[in-house]
Specification:
The protein is an alpha+beta fold. The chain has 2 domains: 53 residues, no CATH class; 162 residues, no CATH class. The chain contains 7 helices and 5 strands, in the order ββββααβααααα. α1 runs antiparallel to α2 and α3 runs parallel beside α6. The longest helix is centred in the C-terminal third of the chain and has 58 residues.
Length: 283
């Protein structure tokens, strides 16, 4: 199951369902289970659709014609111009809000990251996942790419859930520790309840931080395992090429066992990938 991301300047939305983003630009990456769309930062051009033009132009014309009959030409022109200027500023804004509401909204399972710390942490996790995917061509048949993509998508989805939770708890803690709450009397029962909630929130936040750090570490281990495997293989190939070129033989102190070394490195890679989704909670 894939993972879909939509982001603009202030919000990152992550969903298991396809996200439809107006004027979005898809980010190109080497693996297909992660689909990211970015909304470009640009000014929206004036809306010149027929309904908007009619809504702006028709009322001033009608008002001017009616006023000409009863109020005279000067007052009719003033009323018409005033109404035209008012509608020019109001109608496009109303129409734009309605258009945005009419677009398809993310499903109920979509997760939103708005705090800078959480968005940065998610970007960091995505960057690691991208680097992991870059090792797959060199790993060859060692990695089942579709299965690995699904594992990475699941791992990022779990990290997203933790980031959403951390974002919520951080907001709760900020509200509980407002400066104007500090002056409450210790003898007040409300102050005791406040301190209890602060301690509980900090404890919950600490648990989320520990879980999040563990999942980020699993991503990094998967990346490092793949790169280590590639580096070890390239090193052996370089040594063998040098031996063939120089006509030298490896030291006889210990018989080389390439198969055992390969099996060990392979097991490290596979273990790192299995660890990505170890202990995942069901959605």
């Amino acid at each position: 199951m894939g993972l879909y991301i939509a982001r603009d300047r202030n919000t990152t939305v992550i969903s298991r369902a396809v996200l439809h983003v107006h004027d979005g630009r898809r980010v190109r990456r080497s693996w297909s289970a992660l689909v990211e769309t970015r909304v470009p930062e640009r000014h929206t051009p004036p809306d010149r659709s027929v309904p908007v033009v009619v809504a702006i132009g028709l009322p001033p014309v009608l008002v001017t014609l009616i006023a000409l009959r009863f109020l005279g030409i000067e007052l009719a022109i003033v009323l018409g111009v005033f109404l035209l200027l008012t509608l020019i500023s109001v109608v496009p804004a109303i129409h734009g809000r309605r258009a945005r509401r009419s677009r398809q909204q993310p499903g109920p399972d979509a997760r939103r990251l708005t705090a800078a710390a959480e968005r940065t942490a998610f970007d960091r996790a995505v960057a690691i996942a991208d680097r992991i995917s870059e090792t797959w061509p060199a790993l060859g048949n060692l990695v089942d790419v579709p299965a690995a993509e699904a594992l990475l998508a699941d791992a990022l989805w779990e990290i997203t859930g933790l980031l959403v939770r951390r974002q919520e708890l951080s907001a709760v803690l900020a509200d509980l520790t407002r400066p104007d709450f500090v002056g409450l009397s210790p003898a007040d029962g409300t102050a005791e309840r406040l301190q209890a909630q602060i301690r509980a929130t900090k404890q919950a936040l600490s648990g989320v931080e520990i879980d999040l750090a563990g999942r980020e570490a699993s991503l990094r281990r998967a990346e490092e395992a793949g790169r280590t495997f590639i580096r070890e293989r390239e090193m052996r190939q370089a040594i063998q090429a040098a031996e063939r070129s120089l006509g030298t033989q490896p030291e006889a102190a210990r018989p080389a066992d390439p198969a055992a070394d390969l099996a060990e490195q392979t097991q490290l890679v596979l273990s790192a990938y299995r660890e990505l989704t170890a202990g995942l909670r069901p959605d």
